[in-house]
Design brief:
Helices cover 46% and strands 21% of the residues. It has helices spanning 15-25, 40-46, 64-83, 86-101; strands spanning 4-7, 49-57, 104-107, 110-117.
């Protein structure tokens, strides 16, 4: 459903933040995957709802740092509990936050489903 790493300047290095984004999007395990999002509209329509719709909202750069900090907190918990690699997580997180302080951010669009009860 489309995430990316953005920055205020294309010359800013974002490789560590990109590693976190890729791992959060596809951790290589069935735990933590978000495939359920792709079929939720159909699932709702099949289980007592109708006219289900998915709305995607991409926030502006003004909100990028705020949401990035939320994702980094999520990353810390996700990596410790799902990936079970606390040492690597801490090092990667620190490197990624240096990139954030230079002007980059992870961007995950906000997804909202709306449906009517049948």
């Amino acid at each position: 459903m489309g995430s990316w790493v953005g920055s205020i300047d294309p010359s800013i290095v974002t490789s560590e933040l990109e590693r976190i984004r890729q791992t959060m999007s596809n951790p290589g395990t069935s735990r933590g995957l978000d495939d359920w999002k792709h079929g939720l509209t159909e699932t709702l329509n099949q289980h007592g709802f109708q006219d289900s719709k998915l709305f995607r909202h991409e926030y502006s750069q003004i909100m990028a740092r705020y949401w990035n900090d939320m994702y980094m907190a999520t990353w810390d918990e996700f990596a410790r509990t799902v990936l079970e690699k606390p040492g690597e997580v801490s090092k990667l997180g620190n490197k990624a936050m240096k990139e954030v302080r230079n002007g980059s951010a992870i961007m995950f669009p906000k997804l909202v489903w709306v449906a009517q009860k049948a």
